[in-house]
């Protein structure tokens, strides 16, 4: 198969004339905007495919067929032109390039290196688009329908999974080499948070054999594995009083109350893994190390009452003040109020608010004693007594991490809303869609790419990934020149000569290079 650049140029010019006629011809003068836009998009896709084919033909023609040297220094003669398939956003095109080979020595295709091609047949742009959709939506179904409607084709689930696996492999290496935020963009409190969220997993063969045909009450198909989510950021100290926190938390409008400052996390970085708490916290510790500096004046660790997390944080982050998430503590008060007063009682709010204020004011011991007294009351029901003791035990165990008066006066955050959002949005919203089950490897790949997207590192990561691929496959760095898309965007627009009439359009020359 041999492509002729002159023939393709003529086809491109004919196609361009067809596009011009479509938007300026007689039918266009009465057409609706929607029909023109839809038709124009499809025509531009076809034109893009021809132009991309032309680009590859020109590059192949310019490529020397003189012998090349192998990595070992031996000469490889030109053997033949070899064709590879290239799936782009414009659909499939073919790349014909010189193939150099010598028996016993090996083969080499220099043009593949010059073009920065990967090992598979998919363009980087196509992979990025399809993978970005896949990390937020189900692989198949409507996702595939969308690609079909937009581009006229879609990738199989297997191909998409393979592409995601390949493109996710360098995410951890990317973050290991990424420079930390500059001190000028940071705040004085370094905050870390951690929590777990279950991910539904595919049953292994032994588990499938043990699963009953009909489940009993409370039983569920499959099982979950904990994804440990972590977050790190800095934040400005905002001293508050317990009264101010109560007013904000319960959405009260107090007269003559000064407005609370709105402190936002700076340079937030999130992550999640199914490899366990130790792996997740070890990585978080590495992030802490690179974020340290003279600008950090305070260090805070926030999590719920999970003892397994608390013990590990105390061990690995010894310079941090461990704080029990205030919202979790408040939820235990609500559980006690619901048990005592009933979930429809109007007295619950005041009951919870009063004891919340006590906790924020450093009187948690008194709250614990009160809950114990209520549990001893002869009129207290067994279920109520059980809940009261549960809440009291929770507070008692977490007393070392509930010094809220000190935290508030220092301006520390006391709620783990960041990590709760990570568990909900970063993990749950993608991994707990209806009927979904995961293999750990596939879930980890999606988590890595979601991290790159959620941390606003998508473009930077893929640039790094392409560079590493170029080094691995061809032993050379990618071009240091400005990316071609940036050159086009920032270049001067091409001005076409106005057409006096459509019959003169043959004089309009299509620019072949920008």
Task: Provide a descriptive summary of the structure in words.
The chain is α+β, with helices and mostly antiparallel strands and 514 residues long. It has 2 domains: 5-166 and 441-479, no CATH class; 184-204 and 219-431, no CATH class. It is 49% helix and 14% strand. It is built from 20 helices and 10 strands. The protein has helices at residues 5-24, 33-62, 110-115, 124-134, 142-151, 157-168, 171-177, 205-210, 242-249, 277-291, 307-316, 326-341, 348-360, 364-376, 382-397, 404-410, 417-431, 440-454, 458-474, 484-490; strands at 68-69, 75-76, 78-88, 91-102, 106-108, 189-201, 223-235, 266-273, 298-303, 321-324. A 5-stranded mixed beta sheet has the order 8-7-6-9-10, sandwiched between helices. A hairpin with a 2-residue loop joins strand 3 (78-88) and strand 4. The radius of gyration is 31 Å and the shape is elongated. It starts with a helix and ends in a 24-residue tail after the last helix.
- Which stretches are poorly predicted, pLDDT < 50 over at least 5 residues? 494-514
Quick one: how many beta strands? 10
Distance between the termini: 28 Å
Overall average residue pLDDT: 88
Number of helices: 20
* Helix/strand structural class: alpha+beta
Main beta sheet = 5 strands, mixed
Beta-strand portion reads 5-15%
Range of helix content: 40-55%
Q: What is the oligomer described by this structure? A: single chain
Side-by-side strand order of the widest sheet: 8-7-6-9-10
Tell me the radius of gyration.
31 Å
Task: Please trace the helix and strand order, writing H or E for each element.
Answer: HHEEEEEHHHHHEHEHEHEHEHHHHHHHHH
Molecular shape: elongated
Count the domains: 2
């Amino acid at each position: 198969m041999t492509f002729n650049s002159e023939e393709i140029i003529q086809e491109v010019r004919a196609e361009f004339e067809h596009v011009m006629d479509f938007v300026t011809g007689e039918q266009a003068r009465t057409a609706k905007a929607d029909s023109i836009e839809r038709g124009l998009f499809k025509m531009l896709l076809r034109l893009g495919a021809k132009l991309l084919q032309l680009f590859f033909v020109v590059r192949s023609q310019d490529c020397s067929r003189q012998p090349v040297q192998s990595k070992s220094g031996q000469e490889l003669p030109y053997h033949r032109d070899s064709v590879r398939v290239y799936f782009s956003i414009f659909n499939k095109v073919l790349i014909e390039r010189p193939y150099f080979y010598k028996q016993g020595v090996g083969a080499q295709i220099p043009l593949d290196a010059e073009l920065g091609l990967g090992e598979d047949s998919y363009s980087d742009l196509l992979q990025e688009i399809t993978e970005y959709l896949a990390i937020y939506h189900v692989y198949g179904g409507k996702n595939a329908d969308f690609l079909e409607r937009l581009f006229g084709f879609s990738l199989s689930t297997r191909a998409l999974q393979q592409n995601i696996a390949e493109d996710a492999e360098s995410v951890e290496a990317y973050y290991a080499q990424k420079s930390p935020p500059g001190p000028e963009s940071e705040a004085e409190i370094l905050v870390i948070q951690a929590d777990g969220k279950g991910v539904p997993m595919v049953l292994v063969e032994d588990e499938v054999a043990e699963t009953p045909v009909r489940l009993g009450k409370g039983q569920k198909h499959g099982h979950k594995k904990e994804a440990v989510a972590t977050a790190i950021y800095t934040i400005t100290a905002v001293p508050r009083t317990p009264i101010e926190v109560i007013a904000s938390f319960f959405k009260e409008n107090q007269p003559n109350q000064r407005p609370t400052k709105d402190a936002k996390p700076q340079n937030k970085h999130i992550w999640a893994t199914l490899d366990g708490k130790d792996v997740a916290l070890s990585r978080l510790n590495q992030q802490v190390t690179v974020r340290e500096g003279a600008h950090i004046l305070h260090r805070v660790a926030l999590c719920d009452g999970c003892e397994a997390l608390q013990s590990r944080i105390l061990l690995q982050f010894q310079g941090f003040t461990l704080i029990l998430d205030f919202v979790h503590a408040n939820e235990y008060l609500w559980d006690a109020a619901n048990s005592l007063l009933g979930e429809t009682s109007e007295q619950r709010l005041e009951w919870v608010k009063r004891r919340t204020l006590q906790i924020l004011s450093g009187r948690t011991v008194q709250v614990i004693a009160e809950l114990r007294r209520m549990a001893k009351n002869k009129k207290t029901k067994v279920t109520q007594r059980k809940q009261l003791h549960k809440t009291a035990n929770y507070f008692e165990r977490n007393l070392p991490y509930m010094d809220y008066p000190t935290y508030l006066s220092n301006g520390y955050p006391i709620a783990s809303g960041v990590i709760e959002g990570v568990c909900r949005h970063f993990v749950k919203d993608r991994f707990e869609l209806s009927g979904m089950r995961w293999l750990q490897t596939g879930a980890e790949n999606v988590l890595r790419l979601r991290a790159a997207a959620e941390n606003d590192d998508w473009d930077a990561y893929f640039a790094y990934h392409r560079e590493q691929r170029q080094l691995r496959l061809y032993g050379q760095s990618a071009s240091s020149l400005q990316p071609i898309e940036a050159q086009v965007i920032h270049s001067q627009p091409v001005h076409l000569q106005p057409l006096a009439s459509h019959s003169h359009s043959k004089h309009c020359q299509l620019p072949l290079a920008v």
